[in-house]
């Protein structure tokens, strides 16, 4: 999805599961530096309890060739009304995450990031994550949740393993004349490229990650995706707080 940039919000009264940790130093890499690393390309998407940077990630999905990662993450935070509407998820009376009336199997946040790091480790030492709207939403959201919930070993491993990002929203924006669209939402781009979609499964992280992969294929950009790389530091330097 293409949500607005994450905004700062007063900290919630309830304490996080793990107290916030100092943000580690993020290495400033240029696109050419990342390209020379030849990182493995992974398509990903996140779903969350809301749009603020204080929101909790509740689904992490990623694809690399035939490899698939899809985990639902437990939370104690109520989803915003808009998040419930677009994801079909909510907390029930027992504080269990439910999707379309079905209780989901979830893991604790700290464990989810250990699992994600281990999955990425098996793919390669250097990873380029590709998503839609990732510069304004997924990257700062991932950074904030890693800082809040991940243990230091896992957090630092992910910060060093994920060397950069690419954003199909920004790629489409640079090629706007090709699409002739006023809105570069994921669904609009897919329709413009004749990519089949199922509206009932949109805003499921795994479905959206697959659509991002199809967009890159349809645009014949698989071999050029590295030239559109965004580094961690570029995101935060341009005004999005970690």
TrEMBL record:
Gene Ontology biological process terms, A to Z: DNA catabolic process
Pfam families given in the database record: RNase_T
Ranges annotated as spanning the membrane: none
SUPFAM superfamilies for this protein: Ribonuclease H-like
UniProt-listed Gene3D superfamilies: Ribonuclease H-like superfamily/Ribonuclease H
Family, as annotated: Belongs to the exonuclease superfamily. TREX family.
Keyword Cytoplasm: no
Keyword Nuclease: yes
GO molecular function: 3'-5'-DNA exonuclease activity; metal ion binding; nucleic acid binding
CDD domains, A to Z: DEDDh (cd06127)
SMART domains reported for this sequence: EXOIII
Name of the featured protein: Exonuclease domain-containing protein
Keywords: Exonuclease, Hydrolase, Magnesium, Metal-binding, Nuclease
Residue span(s) of domain Exonuclease: 40-225
Cofactor dependence: Mg(2+)
GO CC terms: cytoplasm
């Amino acid at each position: 999805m293409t949500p607005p940039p994450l905004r700062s919000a007063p900290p919630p009264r309830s304490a996080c599961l793990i107290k916030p940790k100092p943000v580690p130093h993020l290495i400033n890499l240029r696109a050419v530096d990342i390209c020379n690393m030849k990182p493995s390309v992974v398509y990903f998407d996140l779903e969350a309890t809301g749009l603020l940077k204080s929101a909790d990630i509740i689904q992490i999905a990623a694809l690399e060739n035939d490899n698939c990662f899809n985990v639902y993450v437990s939370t104690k935070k109520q989803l915003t009304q808009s998040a419930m509407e677009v994801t079909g998820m909510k907390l029930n009376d027992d504080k269990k995450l439910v999707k379309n009336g079905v209780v989901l199997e979830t893991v604790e946040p700290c464990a989810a990031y250990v699992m994600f790091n281990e999955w990425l480790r098996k793919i390669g030492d250097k990873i380029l994550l590709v998503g839609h709207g990732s510069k304004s939403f997924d990257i700062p959201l991932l950074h904030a949740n890693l800082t809040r919930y991940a243990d230091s070993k896992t957090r630092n491993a992910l910060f060093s393993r994920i060397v950069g990002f690419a954003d199909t929203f920004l790629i489409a924006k640079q090629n706007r004349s090709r699409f002739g669209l006023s809105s570069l939402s994921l669904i609009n781009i897919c329709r413009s490229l004749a990519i089949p979609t199922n509206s009932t499964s949109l805003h499921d992280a795994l479905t959206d990650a697959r659509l991002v992969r199809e967009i890159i294929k349809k645009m014949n950009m698989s071999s050029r995706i590295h030239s559109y790389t965004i580094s961690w530091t570029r995101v935060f330097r341009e005004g999005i707080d970690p």
